[in-house]
């Protein structure tokens, strides 16, 4: 009896390869938002840490001098940030007098105003990427010109989204604080959406 073997080529068919590519595409599409959120959370931890250091230094300065700092030059705290000359903030160029320290991905800003709207607050926000101009803000002092509705901001830190220099308007800029940080919108103050 003779046995004949057919020459069968080994390999995958086009349909099998397409199915594998489709499965990989679905897995990537499913995993990518989780990955982006994890990266944003890690970057925001760095923001919060830098802001916390600046806030503690400003409180120490206040205890020693009786007034809030108007620039980073008068504060002592560890940071790998560069002090910028003038008031060249990325996200809020027209807001208030300020002092700016910038890192690779974010900047710290001290706002200090006198006159009718006396106040002092420190902001840490991203300067590039999907969440540009979003971050955190801590209100040290709110003076005489502030409405009583803003009195509850004093001494608190909020997740914040600056509306200046962004691709959104009004109350529509809620992608970082709500989606990444899981915060709830509190109010809109001076071109900033605040979240708790």
TrEMBL record:
<keyword id="KW-0472">Membrane</keyword>
<dbReference type="GO" id="GO:0016020">
    <property type="term" value="C:membrane"/>
</dbReference>
<keyword id="KW-1133">Transmembrane helix</keyword>
<protein>
    <submittedName>
        <fullName>Type II secretion system protein</fullName>
    </submittedName>
</protein>
<dbReference type="InterPro" id="IPR045584">
    <property type="entry name" value="Pilin-like"/>
</dbReference>
<keyword id="KW-0488">Methylation</keyword>
<keyword id="KW-0812">Transmembrane</keyword>
<dbReference type="Pfam" id="PF07963">
    <property type="entry name" value="N_methyl"/>
</dbReference>
<feature type="transmembrane region" description="Helical">
    <location>
        <begin position="12"/>
        <end position="32"/>
    </location>
</feature>
<dbReference type="InterPro" id="IPR012902">
    <property type="entry name" value="N_methyl_site"/>
</dbReference>
């Amino acid at each position: 009896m003779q046995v004949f073997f057919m020459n069968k080529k080994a390999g995958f068919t086009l349909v099998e390869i397409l199915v594998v590519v489709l499965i990989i595409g679905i897995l990537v599409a499913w995993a990518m938002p989780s990955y982006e959120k994890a990266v944003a959370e890690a970057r925001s931890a760095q923001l919060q840490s830098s802001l916390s250091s600046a806030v503690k230094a400003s409180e120490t300065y206040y205890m020693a001098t009786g007034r809030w700092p108007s620039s980073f030059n008068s504060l002592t705290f560890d940071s790998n940030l560069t002090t910028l000359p003038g008031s060249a903030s990325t996200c809020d160029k027209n807001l208030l007098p300020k002092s700016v320290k910038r890192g690779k991905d974010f900047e710290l800003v001290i706002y200090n105003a006198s006159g009718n709207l006396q106040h002092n607050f420190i902001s840490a926000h991203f300067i590039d990427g999907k969440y540009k101009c979003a971050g955190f803000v801590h209100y040290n002092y709110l003076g005489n010109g502030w409405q009583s509705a803003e009195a509850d901001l004093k001494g608190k830190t909020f997740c914040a989204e600056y509306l200046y220099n962004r691709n959104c308007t009004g109350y529509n800029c809620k992608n970082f604080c709500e989606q990444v940080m899981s915060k709830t919108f509190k109010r809109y103050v001076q071109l900033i959406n605040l979240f708790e």
